[in-house]
Design the sequence.
């Protein structure tokens, strides 16, 4: 089973002014597509070619081409789905309860998540994960993700991920990562985050 580029639920320009159309087009059609092509090449004809991307990340990430490109595919697929032109605002329902019980309030969560995104040196991701009956924040280098062993807490379920590779924001924000991270909170699709719990 070959993986394919997921179709977005919005147009490239729908996330403006927070993420510009050109960045979205390049990020989705070039960067994400390259991860998929390389992943398909790496697993073709192997015993894992018919596994889910989650299974590949959890159990077969010791192979670096598979780790990097499988992670790239999983991470970006989640990222596109938790973005929405109608996103932003305060979380609701289950995720609001988990954020409040784990961090005290939404503002505390935003501060800690922003810190995880800002202190990730070089390229990587910031994550909000469900662990048992609470949520935790972690960050990962490159295209690693919380499904991979030894990265965050065992049995972490990624709910929300922010790409802090420069290709995700440099055309519009240049070296202003703080502005990009701040803009991200205006796009979070909390309904989709709730669907992952």
Sequence:
């Amino acid at each position: 089973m070959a993986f394919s580029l997921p179709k977005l639920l919005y147009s490239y320009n729908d996330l403006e002014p927070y993420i510009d159309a050109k960045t979205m087009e390049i990020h989705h059609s070039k960067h994400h597509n390259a991860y998929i092509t390389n992943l398909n090449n790496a697993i073709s004809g192997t015993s894992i070619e018919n596994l889910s991307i989650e299974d590949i990340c959890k159990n077969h990430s010791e192979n670096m081409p598979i780790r990097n490109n499988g992670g790239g595919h999983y991470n970006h697929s989640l990222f596109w789905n938790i973005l929405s032109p109608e996103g932003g605002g305060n979380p609701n329902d289950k995720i609001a309860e988990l954020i409040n019980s784990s961090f005290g309030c939404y503002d505390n969560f935003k501060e800690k998540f922003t810190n995880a995104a800002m202190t990730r040196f070089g390229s990587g991701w910031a994550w909000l994960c469900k662990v048992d009956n609470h949520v935790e924040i972690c960050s990962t280098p490159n295209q690693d993700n919380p499904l991979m062993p030894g990265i965050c807490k065992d049995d972490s379920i990624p709910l929300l991920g922010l790409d802090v590779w420069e290709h995700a924001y440099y055309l519009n924000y240049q070296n202003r990562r703080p502005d990009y991270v701040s803009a991200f909170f205006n796009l979070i699709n909390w309904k989709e985050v709730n669907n992952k719990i």
